[in-house]
Amino acid sequence: MSNSLPPEEFWSLVHPYTGPVTDVETASRGFSSDLTALVRCGKGPFFVKAMLNRPGGRRDSLVREALVNPTVKPVAPALLWHAENEGWVALGFEVVEGRSADFEPGSPDLPAVVDTLNWINALDPPEIARDWPETRWDRFARDKAEADLFRGEGLLHTDINPSNLIVGQDRMWAVDWAWPTRGAAFIDVACLVLQLIAAGHTAQGAESWAAHCQAWRNADPAAIDAFATATFGMYRSRASRFPDASWLDDMATAARAWVLHRGVAPRPPSPAHASCDGCSADADAHDLGLGAADR
Predict the structure, then answer these.
(1) What are phi and psi of 84, to 5 degrees?
(2) What CATH architecture does domain 8-93 belong to?
(3) Is the peptide bond preceding residue 180 cis, with omega within 30 degrees of 0?
(4) Per CATH, is 99-294 categorized as 3.90.1200.10?
(5) What's the superkingdom here (predicted)?
(6) Is the peptide bond before 45 cis (omega within 30 degrees of 0)?
(7) pTM (2 decimals)?
């Protein structure tokens, strides 16, 4: 094991679940965790996510992922064990074989992507999700009335991107439920639209795929307009804060194309709403839920 891996005390914690560990293959993404790795072991293999047991958003995201897993197992790898002590929190998932989905125009994966989002939308949120309202886009809305359009009873993944949709031999999995929330059901589909534009689709073409999702067809167009402009504001803000992260510029460009297609101009939020403490707390808790930590 390399020096970048957790210390022996961590492996002692998980030993009852893993048995002797023979190999640890760290993931190329998933940097929001202190350990994200395929662990080959006597009782495994397992896909393991672990964090130092410190209060805050990153630990809370792992707790949420454990709590939501019984609900999302129809579309996600099963959580097989959960270990925790004063130093560490660790989750052991079943290992699924596959590759990241291809979002580019003409990809044969796109029908399965749409089906997976429809499947997620059909899941009944667990009772605990009532404590997880989606507010991360609120600070970029024009006002409270516009932010209220993002409210709803849908269970949301909130980080729909190619790396989080895994194509297996005969099915697709939605992985990395690191910050599930409860909100307007169209939000996950809207996240897909943005990702499709970033992958090379026209905004019109991206929305034509979204139209295969019931949540999109049921959505108020004004809510989609508000979400598109808030998303543009979000990425524009983050790109200015992190100028070396070129992917943020790419996403801001995609969001701008989407806003222009919908014929709505990006608007700055009102000062009172932009400084909402609750909105800031949610955003800081998991990096706006848009995969920034994993790029």
Answers:
(1) -155, 140
(2) 2-Layer Sandwich (3.30)
(3) no
(4) yes
(5) Bacteria
(6) yes
(7) 0.88
